Amino acid sequence: MSASFHFSSRYGHPTLGLSTHQPDLSVVVPIYNEVENLPHLLEAIATALEHSGITYEILCVDDGSKDGSAELLKQLSSHHSHLRTVLLRRNYGQTAAMAAGFNYAQGRIIVTLDGDLQNDPLDIPLLVAKLNEGYDLVSGWRKDRKDATLTRLLPSKIANLLIARVTGVQLHDYGCSLKAYRSELVSDMNLYGELHRFLPALAFIEGARITEVPVRHHARRFGHSKYGLGRTLRVLADLLTIYFMKRFLTRPMHVFGLWGFVSILLGLGLAGYLAFLKIGLGESIGDRPLLILAVVLLITGIQLFSFGLLAELLMRTYHESQNRPIYRVREVVEPSTPDTP
Q1: How far apart are CA 184 and CA 181, in angstroms?
Q2: Termini Cα distance of the chain
Q3: pLDDT in tens, 33-84
């Protein structure tokens, strides 16, 4: 399959770390303990792209593997001219590994996929062609997924419905790592926590055009899955972060100020009622629980209102403006160039 490319700087930001010979495509693969899969993965990617007419690089980010994946990647880099390797100092998690991949990728288009061979590299040209229709992000949809029903499929289905409802981005499969992005889009997004699974929602906040296409999915052949139910609470926490960013990132006063104002009004209402009882009717109010509630509501309202003002100021120096990466790179292994006679 061949594909033509038309690129636009819609977001007005330069792609990070571009070389003189910028490839059309960067295939970013986070790696954690996938030593058995690596040779097959690189061969599958090369087979999928060698006749596509696309200039490409394969960027493997080793996230502190302990099974020899890093050493194997160093060896493979010596005779794979398309392979670049980024070795992180320790295991930071998939989000940090993907952030490193985005920062070191040189392609005009970036495609991500897992290193476990469950995503099929043959679908990469399909995603690129769809992106070329004018989209900024194309997400894979594992329509016929080859995973355990109770531990993987059911929780994933529930999570996808919940994420789509909260974020407003209607995708069937948020958890599919096989996605294609325009490089200027990912240069606007800094990742932390478990936000890699919410990349479509983050892109939507940036005004990106998003779609999805059905892709193939294979059962894992080697190694063990790194996903489990233990991530549920972290995903829910990050989902709340995304919801807040989508609704109130540029206007935090709208949420904190609103509830602060409501709290202050309730406190003043109770205080007025108690003042009428004390002054107008001569009743004792010192032992009334309403007095404590009125004081608490007033203090809470003032705190929320003040917090909203501070949030409005802090949003100008929002997390991403610090330009401080969430990972530390130990080494970058570039492909060796063949000796010229």
Answers
A1: 8
A2: 34
A3: 999 999 999 999 999 998 888 999 999 999 999 999 999 999 998 888 899 9
Among 118, 103, 129, smallest CA distance to 49 is for 129
Q: How far apart are CA 324 and CA 76, in angstroms?
A: 31
Alpha-carbon span 31 to 134, nearest angstrom: 30
* Cα-only R_g, the chain: 25
Ramachandran angles phi, psi of 190, nearest 5° = -100, 135
Structure tokens at 188: 């606007």
Which tokens belong to 48?
């999928």
Contact 35, 22 (CB under 8 A): no
Cβ atoms of residues 104 and 84 within 8 Å? yes
CATH T-level fold of 25-248:
Spore Coat Polysaccharide Biosynthesis Protein SpsA; Chain A (3.90.550)
Backbone angles phi, psi at 96, to 5 degrees: -65, -40
Tokens read off for 307: 């917090």
Q: What are the structure tokens assigned to 287, written together?
A: 């032992």
Q: Under a CB-based contact definition with an 8 Å cutoff, are residues 57 and 22 in contact?
A: no
Average pLDDT over residues 228-248: 69
Domain ranges of the chain: 25-248, 253-316
Q: Read off the pTM.
A: 0.70
CA separation (Å) from 108 to 3, 159, 180? Answer: 14, 31, 11
Sign of the torsion angle spanned by Cα atoms 126, 129, 135, 136: positive
Euclidean distance between CA atoms 28 and 59, whole angstroms: 5
Q: Within its chain, how far is the Cα of 166 from the centroid?
A: 15
Tokens of 291: 């007095």
